[in-house]
Every structure is written in C-alpha cells, then in structure tokens.
Design brief:
Blueprint: H1 13-41, H2 49-58, H3 61-64, H4 75-88, H5 93-117, H6 122-133, H7 139-143, H8 148-164, H9 167-173, H10 175-193, H11 202-212, H12 222-246, H13 257-263, H14 266-277, H15 287-305, H16 311-329, H17 348-372, H18 377-381, H19 385-420, E1 428-438, H20 447-457, E2 463-473, E3 478-480, E4 485-486, E5 499-502, H21 517-525, E6 528-536, E7 543-547, H22 550-557, E8 562-563, E9 574-577, E10 586-593, E11 598-601, E12 610-619, E13 628-635, E14 638-643, E15 652-659
C-alpha cells in the first residue's frame, strides 16, 4: 500500500504544490491577456514620469549612482529607467509600462517562492501570490511608470528574503554557506533600500516568515538569527551612510522628514491609510460589482485576523502585524484616499504584507477545520477555498477597473501633448486648463511635463505657464470640477508679451472610442459649459456667485446660506462655451472677488479684485448659438448678473458678452 505524506493543510504535499501553482499560472495568464498587456500597449507618460525621463536623459549610469534625484536618493529604479530609455526611447512609453508590470508579476511569483522556502503550505503560498498580483489598493505602483521605485525595490526585498530562507540548510552546512547567505541578504536589502526606503522592514518580515510556519522539531539556530540581524541591519545602515554622502538626511522630495512627520497627524493618517489598504475601489458602471468590491475589502481584513486563531501561526501573525504597522507607518506623513486611483504606490509594500496575512488567515482556518472535522465533514472544509477564489475574482474586477481608469488618464495626456506639438516654435504659451488630475485619481500632468516632452520628442519647446484644473466626466464630456489656479510647476508666473493663449480640448478614449482624436478634439472644442448662479440671501442677495463646477455649487448650497433658486428677475443660470474656437470673436469670462462680493468680468486682472478663475468663453456679438446679452450690474457694495434684461434703476451696467440659456447639461 502506498502512502502519501500530508502537509499542514491536511492534503498531500506534492499535489497541493502542483495544483495551486498551476492555478496561479493560469490566473497570471488571464490577468496578462485581460488587463496588463492591453494596458501596457496603450500606455502614455503621466505626471512625474516626465521628471524621471528628464533626469535619466541627462545623466549617465555612473552619474545616477552619485546624484540626488529630485530631493531623493533612489538610484535603483533610475538605473532601470535609463536602460528602458536607451532601449525604447521616449517614443515608446509602452516599453516602460511593460517592464513595470513584468517586474510586479515576478514579485508575485517571488512571494510564493519565499513563502514555500519558509515552509508555508502551497495553498497559502500561491493564494498569497494571487492576492498580491491583483491587490487593488496598490494600483498606482502597477499602472504608473513612476511606481517603479516600489516594484523594483520589492524585487530586491523579496530576493533578500529568498536568500535568508537558506538559513536552516546553511547553518547545517557550515560557516561558508552561512556567510554567503548573509552577504546575499545584505546585498538584496541594500539594493531594495536604494529603490525605496520602505525596504527597512526586511528583518521583521523575515522573522515573521520564520515564525509563521515554524517546525518545532527543527528550530533555527542562534547563528542563523545572528546572521539575519547583522545582514539586514547592515543593509539598512549602509544605505543611510551612502545617502548621507550624496544628500543630507534632512532633505527629501517633501522637505525635511523630521518636519513633515512632526507636523502630520500621524495617528489619523495611519488609520486612514489602514482603511485605504482594505478598500477595493471600483471605477466601472456596475453597481453590484461596486458593492462586492466594498464588501470584499473588509472580508479581506477579516481574513487577515484569522491567522491569530491558529496557535501554530499566532506568533508569526503577530510579527506580521508589527511588520504591517512599520510599512504603514512609513506612509503616515500623508493620508491616502480610500478607493482612490492616487497614492496607491505608497501601499505597495503594505499590500504585500497584507497579502501574506490574508493567505495565512484563510489557510489557518482551513487547517483547523481539517484537523477537527471527521468523515464527510472534512470535505466541507474544502469549501473554505471558495471564498478565497471569490476574493481574488473581486480583486481582479477592481484592478481591471483601475486599469481602465488609468488608461483614460494616459489617453487624455497623450491628446494634450498632441495639441501642443504644433506650438513647438512659439516662445511662450499660456495653457489655460491643464488637466492635473481626474476626480478620485489618477493624476494626469504637471506643467513642467509639457516642455520636457516636446524637447525630448521634437527637439524644441516653448516655455509654458499653466492654469491647472481637476476633471470629471458627466456622461457627455469632461467638466472642470475645480476653479482654474496657477500650476506651481510653470516655467514662469506672470503674463508676458508674445505669449500664446491655449485652451485645451479634453479628449480621451472615454469620449473618443473611435480613436479619431482630431475629430473628437474639434467636437470637444464646441462643447458648452453651464454656469450655475447662486445667491446669498433672497430676495435681495448680498452676494452672487457664478460657477461652472457642479461640485462647487453643491458644496456651497450645503452650507445653508446660499441658494440656487432664481430669486432675481433676469438672473438665472446660463451657458458659455467651454473651449476657445481660435477666433477673436470669443473671449474668456472671469470670476472675481474683491473681499466683499463676487462679480464677473472680461478683464483678466479683475480691476480692483482678485481673479478666482475662468468661467468659460462668451461671444462679443450675438449669434444663433449665443443670442442672449449678459450684463453685469453693480452698485456700491453689491453686484448681480442680468441675462437678456436691463439692470435695475440706479445700478451701473457693464457688457459681459453673449451667451445662451441654461438648456445644456452639467
């Protein structure tokens, strides 16, 4: 009679390794064909990607190793980006995204191998890898090239942990293998720290894994623990010594770390980031999938806590909780929005630790049921695997929606650059409405990106001044949900002679599924924008606020002091143009504030008031599209609009252009 050796999970160990491993490979292929490959193929550079490109284009490999990068010292990722730039050039952004996603996939495989080397059951190892592969809160690290700091750093961190897993065998083999293990662990930790400082969790991570699936009959020797402590601690210390030679420890991209950590509300931010870690966002149209994503995030948090139930994994689970706290603590200087497509790169390391804990919790529950169940009830324990599969499936749906959202952002950035290429010979350009970010993420562009991209692709570029806006999609097109404000990353701040004005059309694959961006841009250029009129006090308002943002109008109304009800004759909502058509017959209308009341003006400087932003464009003469005359009526201490009506007696009238009624949608 043949006998099969059973592992901790109560099933034959070799088949349990093959089956979960094969299932993971199938799942990995599905993720690549359905999500990763299409996304990488359509990628375009976003936001801070241009700063990374600018840096690696101007520095050699040797320079990168000794030069601070934008207030940080993280040469690891920059060495990879330098290589991709040499191989692909700026004209093929898909190559950068492809390798970032390949490295993330490698990290998931390495995680499973590390867990197996530390004697984790196959079900736990490969389910943890699958959870990490599509862990939704870490979306930004996957879908943004600049997330390479996290993905490349994670590769070295897991390689260091894989080297540390040689410990038991190295201790029995002698001092030379033990020293080799220590050197490899040290090198992996240092390389990881040179990509992202969150790799400082290396020692507690390895200690957690050693205790998570410990074999009481073969305890680790003190020599192994000593080598681990020395190797990982030396790797972290060596990084700070090297960093101190290149850039003072008091400097970073965000300023002095001691200052911004001291000024941050660390407890609140930590709790917010913990909530974000278990909130699976969804940007699709299905309400029931959105509900499933919300429930599954907290189900994952519940699974995480199950590891404390099993006595054999309790110590390891406690150390994993400490490790998770250390990883989250590194991000506590800022609060990350739950379910957002922005800031997720900061949760990449925490997501890896959480994936281990989720898999450990579910495996512990499976072990307990199989050890205590008898007869036919033992087969019921296998049903525990179904929630694991369901969790991973919902993660996949969430991650797919994030890929779509980032694809929307990249296509928007691509179209913006296409609109600016014809202006490459202009000396100065004022971009009135640069898309900075989509509602709830992701980021799109900063002003400095425009000059960098044009210089790298067409060889010359104007200097840019930008007003940035946040965008949302209302079903018909993009609307600006924030007032226009100067982008701090502009090349200059004040209007200059010879400056060319540029009003961008917002076009992405969302409102241009045909791919004909030129036709879609022309259509977007003629889209109207509704102006909401709000009153402070009725029937004789002391202030009147005009806004093109539905979100701002709702927010102001919720204060209870303002109303959108039409309490003045001839002063209702109206419609302006959202884009400049290039003619001299259409001019911008500005919203102003003089510290007493709001008003509208055709003067960009707003006279004696402050310019709060641009409302849209009005025609200087009547037309079929703009038949209604808009006037501004002012009296000492007050102002109000008059639409197709005269100002009240005793009020001074000013011309504000021709507009149309409020029939357009928000």
């Amino acid at each position: 009679m043949s006998h099969s050796v059973r592992g901790e999970s109560g099933v034959p160990d070799r088949p349990s390794f093959v089956t979960p491993g094969a299932a993971f490979v199938v799942f990995l292929l599905v993720v690549w064909f359905a999500v990763f490959a299409p996304y990488a193929g359509s990628y375009f550079f976003l936001f801070d990607d241009y700063a990374q490109l600018d840096f690696v284009s101007e520095h050699s490999y040797a320079d990168i190793l000794v030069t601070p990068e934008h207030g940080n010292f993280r040469p690891g990722a920059f060495l990879f980006w330098k290589t991709w730039l040499v191989l692909f050039g700026v004209g093929k952004p898909s190559g950068f995204s492809l390798f970032n996603l390949l490295v993330h996939s490698l990290n998931a495989i390495l995680l499973a191998l590390v867990l197996r080397r530390f004697h984790a059951p196959a079900v736990m190892a490969w389910s943890g890898a699958a959870v990490f592969l599509v862990f939704p809160p870490a979306n930004e690290a996957l879908f943004w090239m600049s997330g390479g700091h996290d993905t490349y750093g994670m590769t070295f961190l897991l390689l260091a942990a894989l080297a540390a897993s040689m410990g038991p065998n190295a201790a029995r083999a002698g001092l030379l293998p033990l020293a080799a293990m220590g050197m490899l662990s040290f090198a992996g930790t240092l390389a990881a720290m040179l990509s992202k400082e969150t790799a400082y969790i290396a020692l507690p991570l390895v200690a957690s894994l050693a205790w998570l699936n410990r074999d009481g009959s073969q305890p680790l020797s003190r020599r192994v623990w000593l080598v681990w402590c020395l190797a990982f601690s030396a790797g972290v210390a060596a990084f700070f010594l090297l960093r101190g030679q290149v850039i003072p420890l008091s400097q970073s991209a965000y300023g002095d770390p001691r200052v911004f950590y001291a000024e941050a509300n660390l407890v609140r931010n930590f709790l917010e980031n913990l909530r974000a870690l278990f909130t699976f966002g969804y940007f699709g149209s299905s309400q029931w999938v959105a509900s499933l994503c919300g429930v599954s995030g907290w189900f994952a948090a519940a699974c995480l806590s199950l590891g404390f139930i099993d006595r054999r994994r309790r110590l390891g689970s406690l150390w994993l909780a400490v490790t998770l706290g250390l990883a989250l603590g590194a991000t506590a200087f800022v609060a990350i929005g739950a379910g957002a497509a922005a800031g997720g790169r900061l949760l990449y390391t925490s997501g890896m630790v959480a994936s281990i804990m989720i898999a450990a919790g579910l495996t512990s529950l499976l072990d307990i049921l199989r050890r205590t169940a008898a007869g036919e009830r033992r087969y019921g324990a296998t049903l525990i695997l179904l929630p694991v599969a369901a969790l991973i499936a919902v993660e996949f749906a969430s991650m797919q929606s994030f890929a779509w959202r980032f694809g929307e952002s990249t296509s928007l950035a691509r179209n913006v650059m296409a609109q600016l290429v014809p202006l490459r010979n202009e000396p100065l350009v004022h971009v009135r409405n640069l898309p900075y970010m989509l509602a709830n993420g992701p980021y799109v562009l900063k002003c400095y990106a425009l000059e960098i991209y044009l210089a790298l692709t067409v060889g010359r570029s104007p200097r840019f001044r930008c007003d940035r806006v946040f965008l949302d999609y209302n079903g018909e097109g993009y609307v600006e949900i924030t007032p226009r404000e100067p982008d701090e990353f502009s090349d200059y701040s004040e209007a200059r002679p010879g400056e060319r004005e540029m009003e961008l059309a917002f076009v992405s694959r969302r409102n241009c599924p045909s791919g004909d961006t030129r036709a879609c841009s022309a259509r977007a250029a003629s889209m109207p924008s509704k102006i909401h009129v709000l009153y402070l006090g009725c029937p004789d308002p002391t202030d009147v606020l005009l806004t093109s943002s539905r979100a701002e109008a709702d927010s102001v109304e919720q204060t209870g002091s303002w109303t959108a009800e039409n309490c003045l004759e001839g002063a209702g909502d109206f419609t302006v143009y959202g884009r400049h058509d290039g003619s001299t017959m259409r001019v911008p209308l500005f919203r102003c504030f003089n510290q007493k009341f709001h008003f509208a003006s055709l003067d960009p400087s707003c006279g004696d008031g402050d310019t709060e932003g641009e409302l849209g464009f009005v025609d200087v003469s009547a037309s079929a599209l703009s038949p209604l005359l808009l006037r501004g009526c002012s009296q000492t201490g007050r102002w109000r609009p008059a639409l197709a009506a005269d100002c009240p007696a005793g009020w001074t009238a000013s011309f504000l252009g021709y507009v149309s009624g409020s029939q357009s949608t928000d």
